[in-house]
Amino acid sequence: MHALNRNRPLRRVVLATAATVSSVVLLLSLKPHSTPSVALPATNGTSSTGSSSPGTGTTTGTLTGSTVQTRYGPVQVRVTLKSGKITDVTAVTYPQDNPRDQEINSYAIPQLKREAISAQSANIDTVSGASYTSDGYRQSLQSALDSATG
Question: How far, in Å, CA of 63 to CA of 70, rounded?
Answer without folding.
Answer: 21
